[in-house]
Task: structure prediction
Amino acid sequence: MTRSFPDNFIWGAATAAHQIEGNNLNSDWWQLEQLAADHGVQPSGDSLDSYHRYEEDMRLLADAGFGAYRFSIEWARIEPVPGAFSRAELAHYRRMIETAQRLGLKPMVTLHHFTHPLWFEERGGWLGEGAVDAFKRYAEQACTILGGVEWVFTINEPNVVAFMHGGRRGDTQGKPFPENGVPDDEIGDVLIAAHRAAVSVVRAATGAKVGWTIGNQALTCIPGAEKKYAEVQYQWEDKYLEVSRDDDFIGVQSYTSQQVDEKGIIPHPPHPDNTLMGWAYRPDALGIAVRHTREVVGDDVPILITENGMATADDERRIAYTTGALTALRDAMDDGIDVRGYLHWSLLDNFEWGRWEPTFGLIAVDRETFERHPKPSLGWLGGIARNNAL
Ligand code: BGC
Result:
């Protein structure tokens, strides 16, 4: 059965600067990779050299039939020293925006995707003095290159940032991701303030729609655990989703689903179908995420799927997963949920935050020669984009 999507539905793929560019020397993550090497954290190194090869990446996306590219600009490059903004780096990202436009791709720009300048980290990161003002000042500079960009994301997955940085509190040499726990509430509050400041800046300086993207957990409740479920749901998600009621849209990012019992989130049990992230194979998670988001945010804020995908070495499974996710999405839209687009994570097999093994890409990359090798899933999803139908 053919299931078509609304006119002007946006089809694209997403990436993040630190995961693909290479040599992001001035960032907290570069430092973390060096410090945490003993914990088995792998370095990003040259990564995919997309800093230089972005045009090739965008062309592959456009030629496959997609109409949008979500990427992030790197604060650590744009402001290598506090208050000193690099005109050359801003011009670099402006060229990326114009290249996307020239190739027929809508550029969709994230201001902050997990990384920040080393000097910001050394001042205490999000809990340091003046953190919100520093982010606001960076956002003002970023706006100088955003002409013609229709969609801007302030902070990617603030809930996950609050989780990661909460775990790092007092121990910068530890693992980048805590083993368990919940997002740090205090860091979360700062991120909310930073987001609100950046939204005002973007609204004043550009014509873009502005919002942020939430790492949706698609949590479900074991009967009897309703109280804990509500608590965890708020800490992980709703605190951040509620903020979006004042935004132009909300970005939903969904990969898997987990249950909550009276002790909290139940870790993914080992299973042969688990993805290379160790996550349960749950294409239906996207439907749960979208429905929950609508429940919290309401009907007035449109939804954009800003990330969805699967870490697998088997491209046929990626296609099967994405078919399931898009079917669940279309079902949710049939129920009246206003979804404006779908951006697959990810365009490329990239640096998965300390690991190279979990491959999410529609395109494989030879990390010695940097040669790009499109997988069948690129053409397959590009065909769906072209037909605007599943
Ligand atoms: C992040 C991406 C990441 C992906 C898969 C999201 O949390 O925004 O940077 O690669 O999930 O883990």
In short: Residues 12-387 form a domain with the TIM Barrel fold (CATH 3.20.20.80). The mean pLDDT is 97. The longest strand covers residues 209-216. The longest helix spans residues 185-205.
